[in-house]
Structures are given as C-alpha cells and as structure tokens.
Amino acid sequence: MGAGALQGLRVLDLSRILGGPLCGQILGDHGADVLKVEPPQGDDTRAWGPPFQDGVASYYRGLNRNKRSQCLDLSQPAGQARVLELMAQADVVVENFKIGTMEKWGIGWEQVHARFPGLIWCRVSGFGADGPLGAWPGYDAAIQAMSGIMSVNGEQGGEPLRVGLPVVDMVTGMNAVIGVLLALQERQRSGLGQLVDAALYDSGISLLHPHGANWFMDGKPPQRTGNAHPNIYPYDTLQTGSIPVFFAVGNDRQFGLLCGHIGCPQLAEDPRFATAGQRSVHRAMLKPLLEQQLAAFEGEQLATDLMAIGVPAAPVQSVDAALQHPHTLHREMVVDLPGYRGIGAPVKLSRTPATYRLAPLTPGEDFVV
C-alpha cells in the first residue's frame, strides 16, 4: 500500500459526511490501510453537489481518497457479522453514527471492546454521549451558532455569520486524528485500545481563542470586529490603491517598518500608536490614516515588498487564485491522480511523507495483508 508513517495500520472507517471521513483520509494519506464501509445507498455526501463527476459529488471526493470502499447494511445481521470480522483485523475504528445506533445493532464500543481489547475506537459525535446535550445530533453550522463562533464572526454592528468553511467539522476530524495517534502511542505501553471521544461541540468551544481568554480575564462579552483582530492592530484588511490587503502587524518593530515603507514614519512615534496596546485602543483613528497612505500603492506588489522586509501582509485572494498560486504547487498542496484532483496533506514529514495512492471510490473487500 506504499510507505508512510502509519504503514501497517489498519483503519476501518464506518463514518460519513465530514469529520470522520476527514480523519480517515488523513490517516490514509500517511500510510494507513483504510477500508471505508458505506451503507447500500452510499455516503450522503455522494449527492452533495453540484459539481458531480460520474454521478458523485466533489464534496465526497474531497474527503475519501486513500481508502478502499465497500457497501454493507449494518442494520442487518449479515452486515453486522461482516463488520465484526473486519473489526477483528483492524487497529482503529472510526465511526460517527448517532449515539446509540451501533449499540442498538450490537456492534458498538460497549459490546465489542472486551472481544477486541487492542482495538482503538474513535467516536465522532455532535455533543458526546452524556451531559445536558448528550447524544444529540450535531451539525457544523449549528455548533458554530451554539459555541459562540458565529457571535464573533461578521462585521461590527452586523449580524452573526457562519464561517464560510465547515471549520468545526474539519477541526473535529483533526482532533480525532490526534486522539487516535495518542491512543496508538499509549497502546505501545499497555497493549490495550481505548475509546477516543471527539465531539463537534468540544471542538467548537476549543476554537474560541482569544475571545475565551479575553472573557475569562475581563468578563466583557466579545464583539464582532469584521476582519480586525480584537487584541492587535493593524491586524485587519486595509484598502490600497488597487486591492484590499490584509496586514498582520503583531509588534512595534513591524509597525515601524510598515510606517517607514509607506512614508509615514511619524505614526510609529505618535503616542497613540507607539505601542501595540495603544494601537489597539486607538484603531478607529489609525485605520483611516494608514489607508490614506496606502492609496498610493498597488496592493499585490506592496504586500510582496512588505513581506520581504519582515512585515506580514497578504493580498486577499479568491479560492481559485490560491489553488493555482506557485507556492501552493511548490508545497505540493494540490494532488493529481488519474481522474482526481484534491487538496494535499498539510503535514510534511522528512523521511515518511504523505503519499497519494488511491483515488476515491476504489473498491475493496478486506484489509491488505
């Protein structure tokens, strides 16, 4: 199945939609043998389009490479018997059924962990199994709303907005990978598997920095600030003579370099703007003064020139521009397989890098020995 840091690891991916499949894909990218089991009608995301290729949506194809797949009806005795055979071969199970579903079928963690003591079971769920919201179904946008993420996303004075990516689902998938790797490390000592509990709600709450840290300290409810950072300024999108540019000025030295480059060194000496804290307090005064100077510059070239002298700045690019950028290609963040293009693995290992071996929809019945 190819090299990789996880070569030899066998993963039974019983999940669908996003968080669980992303976890399985990451493990597969790094060498695990991942067998994806879908219901007879297939993962729901096969229909989440357009666009479609050969009747399968891009959404599905973006989350299910480096897996072989088969269909089983786990609600039926034959499917249950077969999946137990696969569990006996697996090191890791990833599933995100509604809490209680697999237990109802007699194939949940509670029923099988004594039978397969070395098995690591990764459960991706909305809210976990217990507590006031325990066993409730969870969805990315709903968790963004409940966790406070939407409340701090959007323009000042505007309505709360969903982040334009399924950030909670994706972070939950990444947290699931972290949990699996932690459990694998511990299994080397104990020889035992364990339950890895990755809940969307917990992941949503975990994303609240720095708003949570701010609230813990001063008790003031965080507010929406548009593109601006609540603690740092200028950490914001500013208009130039051509396009918007995002400036991520994190310290006094960078602010001095910025002001010198755009021809207003006096701003860096002004007591209202001389320190990070004062710049944040007086941001409403500072922004128009900076944009007045920036009007004389072409944005993309300005961003390049500022980065060259140590001032973080970036043009605001579209998705298609980002995916075609020379650095994206240099970093191997676009994957090309016959009939498939996707986003590459962001974690680079020097000796055992990620590999791309199987396009989505590769059939399979068993683990490779």
UniProtKB/TrEMBL annotation:
GO terms for molecular function: CoA-transferase activity. Keywords: Transferase. SUPFAM superfamilies: CoA-transferase family III (CaiB/BaiF). It comes from Comamonas terrigena. The lineage of its organism: Bacteria, Pseudomonadati, Pseudomonadota, Betaproteobacteria, Burkholderiales. InterPro entries: CoA-transferase_III_domain (IPR050483), CoA-Trfase_fam_III (IPR003673), CoA-Trfase_III_dom3_sf (IPR044855), CoA-Trfase_III_dom_1_sf (IPR023606). PANTHER family: SUCCINATE--HYDROXYMETHYLGLUTARATE COA-TRANSFERASE (PTHR48207). Pfam families: CoA_transf_3 (PF02515). This is CoA transferase.
